[in-house]
Design goal:
The complex is a heterodimer of chains A (about 350) and B (about 500).
Chain A lengths: L2 H4 L2 H16 L3 E4 L14 E4 L6 E5 L4 E5 L4 H10 L2 E2 L13 H7 L6 H4 L2 H4 E7 L5 E5 L11 H4 L9 E8 L1 E2 L3 E8 L2 H12 L5 E7 L2 E8 L1 H11 L2 E2 L3 H9 L4 H4 L8 E5 L12 E5 L4 E5 L4 H10 L3 E6 L13 H14 L15
Parallel strand pairs in A: 1-2
Antiparallel strand pairs in A: 3-4, 4-8, 5-9, 6-7, 6-8, 10-12, 10-13, 11-12, 11-15, 14-16, 14-17, 15-16
Chain B lengths: L15 H12 L7 E2 L2 H4 L16 E3 L4 H14 L3 E4 L16 E4 L6 E5 L4 E5 L4 H8 L4 E2 L12 H7 L6 H4 L6 E7 L5 E5 L11 H4 L8 E8 L1 E2 L3 E9 L2 H13 L6 E6 H11 L9 E9 L1 H17 L4 E4 L3 H12 L1 H8 L2 E4 L2 E2 L5 H15 L2 E7 L4 E8 L4 H20 L15 H7 L2 H14 L14 H13 L12
Parallel strand pairs in B: 2-4, 3-4
Antiparallel strand pairs in B: 1-2, 5-6, 6-10, 7-11, 8-9, 8-10, 12-14, 12-15, 13-14, 13-18, 16-19, 17-19, 18-19
The chains are: A alpha+beta (about 350), B alpha+beta (about 500).
Chain lengths: ~350, ~500
């Protein structure tokens, strides 16, 4: 994909460290900005630092593509896009200063615009990675459409570093919407879900929605005229803080996420099919993505939360809080678990990359 | 393309006992009318849309239920028999070309729309359902399925998934991958498996993007859950003429630089415009070196604002004529030429080979000039249509397949276009897939280590390499041979690219 990354001295050190670890079967703990250390399974192994492998390697706004090395701070990338009137449409969260582009792709987390704009994976166009043999490999590219070979680059999104070390990534970017406006409606959870269900099938410029404690936030974005007429149709009142309030929600600085005291109930992330009514679990909830993402702080046993999500065709993930590792994620069935293990072996034969970080089995 | 690609690949004498064993084992799990094995019955399946590559399979299976698919896969797995999945056979890269010692697993009878859910905005369809049928079923709810490959009246969703098919609206609405939530199907061992899910993500690795576009090499897909989106109330098409391809290419960049993502942005060169005008009488400007078609969709206010903006940008970029569709009939007429580019080419030439590379948009004029030079080198004509918004180029090389020398030159012409595209920072296939056609070009685009990883990934799903073997990933040996052939042509690689 890019020759620049191949020539880098920082890369040479990474290759040496990976080859050494593979030879001795030592685990490596891949680190970008360390902003998501709380996420996933417990970390182990010697740190493999990506921060030095940084910088935007190419960006041409009219191509709608940006390429950046893994250690590039996300904030730096976003500033460069902003200056050209563009953005990452999937609205990635940044849980602490210093989050990197590589970490963003490896974690695969999108923000409030996910349901309308797609996820991280949907915007990955190409990747250069180091596999578990220390080979530097490129897949995908810098073009919008590319079906040459299996889509390894998009597989990396959300892989939590268990398949390889992301070195450089190319992303599809888009112009920022011309207009943006948030309206707030008063509604209980069931009513808010029903409203969002009704809007989904209409050509409205809804870019994000969220419900918490009786208030439904709706972010409209697009052409000025469309935003204006949709705002008139939806009614409601303006949101205090506007864009900052959405950023606080996205980055979990909102009180619901940040105010947990020591010993608070675990926080669960439930990913559910559109149109799912309230699950009726005990605890305090926060709804995003038109009802497809539900945060729940609940004392309910893990099995009850997992079962409630699975019953409706979704899955639950214990995002924060104490509990057995085996109950953190929805279990993979036997066939999928076998495929995961075999894929892990194909990329990382010695099992050195981020063991247990995505899933306890590999 | 190697030495003798265009010959029918006769089965190298499969031992009669083995063939009999396979047919007997299949007969034990499938009713007789679902197994075709006589020569005249399997012959219609010997190629897909890329008819120059053919092979006759041992049998063609036409199961109707998932249990039958699973049972057939178990038989083939036990006996080590290759399985090539097939939808409508409209693919353009030979992805569904049979294996001479294998069976074709046709999913044509999986043609049921299982459910359309207007609240979730999804449809659950079997993999043999035609692309257009999904939008037809969703229409009463004001919804549609966005990806629209030009073969959409015939091609199946299963085939679209195998190829990660695109169409003319990808820039705004995405590829097949972006519009699919869940795949249901079977592993090579015949075990039921699902990829993705009804929610927006699933636990574990995201295997959906791996299986979408895997050309039937990782799993057999029987059911697909697709995302439906609200049909925009209005669409309008702007047609603009340009005096040269450079200014047309610059106009595409200017539209995007203005912050506009049109619903479609297509370019046709002069030769293609003339061919299609003769065919559809859409009123194209025959004097223009290139024509751009730019579609805006949305609410009436959005379309009015965007169309005015687009027109101003195109005028500033040097358009010599701009016409805006007044109504739906005229919009469809503007598009009719673009949608009929392939059949129209069939009228001006006995045969054509449709290439499918993607390049960074800014290299458009450069690649079109290189193709012009290749017309001289190979003594063949080429017409160009281009998904300009995505940088996806479809050069149609015109030739006569009855002339073996023309076919050979055509194949070299095609390979040259692909290699030039890679050298310009692009890829050998944007939406048609590698299949059998672009195996050699994969040697150019990927290193030996990258190809080895693709092979390892294939074996993670299919350890015995029975699902559509021999496609997509070229062998080391093949790449070594291709390297020699490229040198033997006595030319520098990429002779059309200026060197500094």
């Amino acid at each position: 994909m890019s020759t620049t990354v191949h020539e880098d001295a920082a890369l040479a050190r990474l290759v040496d460290q990976v080859r050494g670890a593979a030879a001795d079967g030592r685990a490596l703990d891949i680190r970008g900005g360390d902003s998501k250390r709380f996420l996933g399974g417990a970390r182990r192994g010697e740190p493999l630092a990506l921060r030095e492998l940084a910088g935007i390697s190419s960006y041409e706004p009219t191509e709608l593509v940006v390429s950046a090395r893994a250690g590039t701070p996300l904030a730096e990338l976003q500033a460069a896009l902003h200056a050209a009137g563009q953005h990452l449409p999937f609205d990635p969260p940044c849980f602490a200063p210093g989050g990197t582009v590589g970490g963003m792709v490896a974690a695969g987390l999108a923000g409030p615009a996910r349901a309308a704009a797609g996820g991280v994976r949907d915007h990955v166009l190409g990747i250069t990675l180091l596999d578990g043999r220390g080979d530097c490999l490129s897949f995908g590219g810098q073009v919008m459409k590319n079906v040459a070979g299996y889509d390894v680059s998009r597989l990396m999104a959300g892989s939590m570093g268990v398949l390889g070390v992301i070195l450089e990534v190319s992303l599809k970017v888009l112009p920022r919407p011309q207009a943006e406006r948030t309206v707030v409606l008063d509604a209980g959870e069931a009513e808010a879900l029903a409203l969002m269900d009704g809007w989904r099938r209409r050509p409205l410029p809804i870019q994000a929605s969220a419900w918490h404690a009786g208030a439904l936030w709706v972010r409209l974005a697009g052409a000025g005229a469309a935003v204006q007429s949709a705002a008139a149709l939806l009614g409601g009142r303006p949101l205090d803080g506007g864009a900052d309030a959405w950023a606080a929600l996205r980055d979990h600085r909102h009180g619901f996420f940040s105010a947990a005291e020591a010993g608070a109930a675990p926080l669960w992330r439930l990913s559910l099919p559109a149109g799912t009514p309230p699950l009726g679990l005990a605890g305090e909830g926060f709804v995003e993505w038109g009802g497809c993402l539900r945060w729940l702080r609940t004392p309910a046993p893990a099995q009850a939360v997992q079962a409630a999500a699975q019953r409706v065709g979704g899955h639950a993930w214990r995002w924060a809080g104490e509990g057995p590792e085996a109950e953190r994620l929805a279990p993979l069935n036997e066939v999928l678990l076998r495929l995961h293990r075999q894929l892990k072996r194909a990329f990382d034969p010695q099992g050195i990359f981020n063991p247990g970080r995505l899933h306890p089995a590999f | 393309m190697n030495a003798a690609p265009s010959l029918l690949r006769e089965a190298p004498a499969v031992p009669e006992r083995r063939r009999a064993e396979l047919l007997a084992a299949l007969a034990a799990v499938l009713p007789p009318e679902m197994i075709l094995s006589r020569r005249e019955d399997v012959t219609p399946y010997e190629s897909d849309g890329l008819a120059v590559y053919r092979a006759r399979p041992l049998a063609v299976l036409l199961p109707r239920t998932e249990q039958q698919v699973a049972a057939a896969l178990r038989v083939c797995h036990r006996l080590g028999v290759p399985v090539v999945a097939r939808g409508a056979g409209t693919g353009l890269s030979g992805g569904a070309m049979p294996h001479a010692q294998g069976v074709v697993l046709s999913l044509a009878r999986f043609d049921r729309i299982v459910a359309v859910d207007p609240v979730r905005c999804t449809a659950v369809v079997q993999s043999g359902v035609r692309n257009i049928a999904v939008s037809e079923a969703a229409a009463p709810h004001g919804l549609y399925y966005a990806p629209d490959p030009s073969s959409q009246i015939a091609c199946t969703i299963g085939g679209n998934v195998a190829e990660n098919a695109g169409g003319v609206h990808c820039l705004k609405y995405g590829l097949t991958l972006h519009n699919v939530l869940k795949l249901r199907g079977f592993t090579v061992e015949g075990e039921a498996v699902e990829f993705g899910g009804d929610a927006l993500d699933a636990p574990g690795l995201d295997l959906l993007p791996l299986v979408v576009g895997s050309e039937g090499m990782l799993a057999i897909v029987t059911e697909v859950t697709v995302r439906l989106i609200p049909r925009p109330p209005l669409a309008c098409c702007i047609m603009a003429s340009f005096p040269d391809v450079e200014s047309a290419g610059a106009a595409v960049a200017a539209v995007i630089a203005a912050g506009i993502i049109p619903a479609g942005l297509e370019l046709m060169d002069k030769r293609m415009t003339a061919a299609v005008e003769d065919f559809v009488h859409a009123g194209y400007d025959l004097d223009a070196a290139a024509i751009l078609l730019c579609e805006s969709d949305g609410t009436a206010e959005e379309v009015a604002a965007e169309a005015a903006h687009v027109s101003a940008v195109l005028r500033a970029a040097g358009a010599t004529r701009i016409e805006r569709s007044r109504d739906e009939a005229q919009r469809l007429r503007f598009w009719s030429g673009r949608k009929n580019a392939f059949p129209a080419s069939g009228r001006i030439s006995p045969d054509y080979l449709c290439m499918d590379s993607t390049i960074p948009r800014k290299r458009l004029a450069e690649v079109l000039r290189a193709i012009e030079a290749m017309e001289q080198t190979y003594g063949l004509r080429c017409a160009n249509v281009f998904h300009a918004g995505d940088g996806n180029l479809h050069p149609l090389i015109l030739f006569d397949a009855n002339d073996p020398d023309q076919l050979r030159r055509c194949e070299r012409f095609g390979a040259d276009i692909l290699e030039t595209s890679v050298a310009l920072g692009g890829t050998v296939t944007g939406e048609h897939g590698v299949g059998i056609e672009k195996l050699n070009s994969m040697c150019v685009q990927f290193s030996a280590a990258e190809r080895a990883l693709l092979g390892a990934l294939k074996r993670a799903f299919d350890p015995g390499e029975l699902l559509n073997p021999g496609k997509v990933i070229p062998t080391l040996h093949r790449c070594a041979e291709y390297g020699k052939m490229t040198v033997r042509r006595g030319l520098l690689p990429f002779p059309h690219i200026p060197r500094y």
